[in-house]
Amino acid sequence: MKNKLLLLIGLVTAGCSVRAQPANPPNSIAAATAGMERNPGFLTFYWDAKKGKVWLEIDKFDTELLYYPTLAQGIGSNDIGLDRGRLGQEHVVKFQRSGNKVLMIEPNYAYRAISNDPLERRAVEESFAKSVHAGFDIAAEENGKVLVDLTSFLMQDAVGAAQAIARTRQGTYRLDATRSALYMPRSKAFPQNTEFETIITLTGDSPGEYLREVVPTPSTVTMHQHHSFVELPPLSGPDAYKPRLFDPRIGYGGIEFFDYATPVSQPITKRYISRHRLVKKDPSAAVSEAVKPIVYYMDPGAPEPIRSALMEGTAWWNQAFEAAGFRNAFQVKLLPPDADPMDIRYNLIQWVHRSTRGWSYGASIIDPRTGEILKGKVTLGSLRVRQDYLIAQGLVGQFDTDSSHVNELMQMSLDRLRQLAAHEVGHTLGLPHNYIASTQGGGEFGRASVMDYPTMVAKLKGAKIDLSDAYAKGIGSYDKWSIRYGYEQFAAGTSEKQALNKLVQDMQATGLSFLTDQDARPEGSVHPATHLWDNGANAVDELQRVMGVRQAALGNFTDKKIPAGMPMATLEEVLVPMYLFHRYQVESVAKVVGGQTYTNALRGDGQAVLSVVPAAEQNRALNALMTTLDPATLAVPSTILAMIPPRPFRYDPNTREVFKRRTGLAFDALSPPETAAGMTLRMLLNPERCARLVRQKALSPALPGLSDVLDKLRDAIVKSPFINQDGYKGEIARQTERLYLDQLIKLATSKEADGSVRATVHEALMRLNALYAGSKTTSPYRYDYHRWLIEQYRDSPDRVVSVAAQAPPDGAPIDPGQEWLPDCDWQP
């Protein structure tokens, strides 16, 4: 017992003596960084050139700041999406010390309690997870500051480049640290932000086609990634930003979160719009200059005359800000030579090159706590203007001894760029797409907003095509209302909520409204006036007009559509957009069938909520679509077929810009008709559209139903006057008939189609089978083949091999968008 007691006393004494010994303090920062290059700023850092390390001095503990990565130098592939200037996700973070370690922690702003009660806020904070982005060992400290090694944090694939490569099936790549390094010429510290840049190398095996096109050694992909640490605005006090509430009747991107301090009788989800901070110098004046104007800077890498056109289009937004009560509050300047485009102080319009034409897009860095836009970032793909020029070339090009028409082609292309610049900058001001705007705003072609996707307006003047009014010049009427909603300041004592509601109602009284991507992009979407790449107030009328322009373009198509000295086979690149000139208007008209007109109405605001498209208009749309399936419409003129030889050496016959072919090197005369007919059939027989047709017939027998549409297609296709004729048009008719059968069988076996749709289509197939069995024709073997297809479907539907129509050559991008971006094609 005595020995145990002595042992216990000894252990306690030893423990006390250990605690009493002073710990070895870390080195001072001055001593640890001796001989290093010091970069003072928002976050001061030190560069150790001998060891290739960056050391960060942290003196802002538990203070929120913004971190986000950027791809400073990309890889040049539109398909993969790793473009120069691509923004990564922003994160609110703070440094928190725990002993000899510092954690970089991201709080969870998706769940909050907007309350003065600290315990209520704490309950929410402790209910949801946080994210620790990094942990650092403290290497030195002095006067409340600590020094940590930031190198390993910077040397990561922060923008997810390897994931993007894998997602697009271009191979499995991983970071190679031995071929990566810090890039100090673009690592700088400023008073409100600190920037770092690194050279990142990914290595992998089995690179895909897209990578092989743009990387010199595809197994090794090197790019530059940028890291930004930015001071955040205060959340309280006189300099605090005031969030503005979202209204679904007028378009704004922004933030949303759960507010658990909300009374039970009110919605728990809060939605704020995203917008720049803009304050009047004289709040009492109807029109005033801004305390700090919004300035966008143009990438000087864009050549003239493109640069000037882009700056002119961007400057259109000043018209909208004037309507909101600001004078000269929106400005456009050329980026100074010594400015860093990654610096958050510069709203940037960046000119980006890729190996193929691709999307442009507008993104923003926002404060996730409030929705305030801190930096607007526009990316414009440089090759897009060449496609615009190509389309103008097909419409009005005449390459003979007189070259005066070239100015007309270029002017239309520059008009398109002006509109494109305004559109993309609009995204960075907080605005999403408004796809109903092309049908509103008055005039023949609407044009109420640059935030729509307009296609060029080509008009027939006699036998000639005129492009003088191809694109709108200036901001739209809807754009002015939307900027007023986001940026207008109201007199002291005014209820902002009531003032904004009145503003929206006043806008609606002018006939303007807002519908966006979810309403327009899906092929099965329902609104008859909300589309991409359309013009005009009525989709059916516009299709008829567009078909006239298409006919004129094909009728005037000669070898003079390309300059002398170009291979004759390259006429096909010019032919494609002319032959498919109606492709997007076909989509618009298809949405009239089974369509429903609706608004984002609020209870009590007086808007019409929902109505079905009248039967007469649906039938008019069906008749218009039938003309697009007419072999006379689908046939490529013989004069054109005689002009396009097989592709010469080193002119790939399978590029994205020409028709797919089943004839080897020879131009496939049946491929364009197959492509165009397939587009009409696919749109019209979309499973969701077919389901609506079944239901609308059940609710209102006067409306066309799915069986009516199938009968209409049967009469136009199977009973076409060309179906039993020899020659080119007869073969087109029979090819369209096979496409129709394939589409019916595909629909009848589709898991996306419900039972009522499949049953109706099954009945149509059985009726076709009976029709073929009882037909007396000069082509019995063709009918035998069709009956065999139908019987194969009936006996073994799981074994039916459907042959899809040839996919069309790339159409979009004719405007922005980016399929790999979240939420369609823009980032709020």
Automatic annotation (TrEMBL):
Residues 85-281 form the DUF5117 domain. Residues 409-719 form the EcxA zinc-binding domain. GO terms for molecular function: metallopeptidase activity. Coiled coil: none annotated. Transmembrane segments: none annotated. It holds the Pfam family DUF5117. Keywords: Signal. Residues 1-20 form the signal peptide. Residues 807-828 are annotated as: Disordered. PANTHER family: PEPTIDASE M1A AND M12B (PTHR38478), ZINC DEPENDENT METALLOPROTEASE DOMAIN LIPOPROTEIN (PTHR38478:SF1). This is DUF5117 domain-containing protein.
